[in-house]
Amino acid sequence: MADVIIVGGGLAGTVVASRLHQRKPSLSIVLIEAGPDPRDHEHVLNPAEAGLLHFSDLDYKYFTVPQEHLDGKPKYNCAIKALGGGTVINTGGWIRGDAHDYDEWARIVGDERWSYNGQLPYFKRSEKHFDPDADPAQHGSDGPLHTGSVSSTGRKYPLRETMLKLWSRLGLKYIHDLNDGRPQGISDLVENWKDGKRQVVQSVYPLEGVRVLTDSMVRRAIIDEKKVAVGVELVSGEIIKLKEHGQIIVSAGAYRTPQFLMLSGIGNASHLSDHGIPTAVDLPFVGQNLHDHLGFFRYWKLRHPEKGLALGSPGFGGPNYDLGGPVDFLVRAPIPVEPLRAAIEKDEGTVPNDHPLLKGPRTHLEMLLPYAVLGAETQGLQIPLDGASVSTFIMGCLPTSRGSVALASSDPTVAPVIDPNYYATETDRHVMREGFRMHSRLMFETPEGKELVHSEHTPPGYPVLGPDASDEKIDARVKMAGSTVFHPGGTAAMGKVVDGSLKVYGTKNLRVVDASVQSPNML
Ligand SMILES: Cc1cc2nc3c(=O)[nH]c(=O)nc-3n(C[C@H](O)[C@H](O)[C@H](O)COP(=O)(O)OP(=O)(O)OC[C@H]3O[C@@H](n4cnc5c(N)ncnc54)[C@H](O)[C@@H]3O)c2cc1C
Hints:
Helix 8 (337-348) packs antiparallel against helix 9 (426-445) and helix 9 crosses helix 11 (471-481). Strands 1, 2, 10, 11, 12, 13 and 25 form a seven-stranded mixed sheet that branches. Strands 8, 17, 18, 19, 20, 23 and 24 form a seven-stranded antiparallel sheet that branches. Strands 16-21-22 form a three-stranded antiparallel sheet, with helices on one face. It contains eleven helices and 25 strands. The chain is globular and about 70 Å long. By secondary structure, it is of the alpha/beta class. Bound molecules: flavin-adenine dinucleotide. Residues 7-13, 32-35, 78-82, 85-87, 89-93, 217-218, 251-254, 256, 260, 412, 486-487, 514-515 line the site of flavin-adenine dinucleotide. Flavin-adenine dinucleotide is lined by residues 7-13, 32-35, 78-82, 85-87, 89-93, 217-218, 251-254, 256, 260, 412, 486-487, 514-515.
């Protein structure tokens, strides 16, 4: 028997377990995680080795259904099966959203607690911010998570001044604080590495006092005839019961949380019946609204590799280079409103001036220039890591494409059917084309770009595309090379599946607390 049963010991589940115990030590809390505690796994603590965890024993190794709006092929999507969830592998980018995003969420669900100011106390509580001169209204100084920027860690990359001039050509300014809710501009990248090491969530949100079961997958929540959650059944057959007025908290991630709800009888009744699952609560929106960030890399051959400008070159190295990723700036930009409006109208018909994507200005694009070549082989390119090339990265921040997670089987150990439906809307295509053209302009038309770059490495069979490339040609590149940035969300959406207090509609004592709860129109 337990007061609180938490299903899934990833980022959200571990934080909730730890904070609940701190707040009320008398509660009996059980945290149940499908995978092991991976902290002694050889590649976990060094963030530079995260690539080695893909397709490892800790990876669920998901593949989507064939993506009809990309190149028609299934796409690999990583998710970690281990205590710590995504914090075991993630890049550690410590990037707070634009205040407009949270305010839009609050407006949609009619609950100010989800606005930027509503969330701010929790942002602050989580961090030990690196900058003593930062605005105390925006940052916390005694939270568990250490953060650091390129400058605060003392990394001085040879291309920094060139990069600042290059990105400024987009009309953007340098901003000192990436994480104050007003992120548009060029800022030092901020990461949550501590002394060059990963902060896996259970190391900073301690679980002493919580009963933790690892290597234990939960099959379903047991819902009684009054729709009250009364316990859970594990795949092993073990049953853990809830004390009266206890809570089951679901935090199995955006792919597995909807699967878990459906296996518990909460979901679209006809889909459940297809899999022989009796319906406890008919909630057709469970598993709908999947959204994810699509990202896209381009690769550039340097004009002067002998200067030691990028990872792999014998001349690339300096004090503290191991304290963060080989990047100077994170760049976040809006795009022009009128062409965007035209794209949205192709999807949605006439749109008002206060359409969420138009008012703001919103942060439509996130961009980087890593001093390294990342993932080129996925585009059929063989670029040696010898410091002779760099990459640029473009991500559409506010996707309007929506997909789904559905059951493949009533067996909880079988992966669900994942369809992110990437690049399905004209809006998403327009945003990505704008980013693509920005990078072409920077590299082919600015003095800094021309001095930096000798040529572009393009995937075999794909020509170099200049700033005046057609939409079709850009789309062809993105469709071949676009891939997930591993940010799925929205599959147990607030206002549709859970209320503003995260309670699952139609049930008692059941909540969802993870990335699944982003609201249906949350962009
Ligand atoms: C490669 C990669 C890079 C990323 N980079 C960044 C970044 O730089 N910055 C950033 O902010 N975010 C990044 N993210 C995203 C971030 O890690 C996720 O958004 C976050 O981990 C989501 O937290 P969650 O609690 O919703 O799910 P998760 O952290 O995925 O946790 C879900 C947990 O539930 C467990 N589970 C699932 N089903 C069951 C079951 N039935 N029974 C028991 N346990 C179960 C899983 O094993 C897992 O441990 C990245 C993610 C990846 C994969």
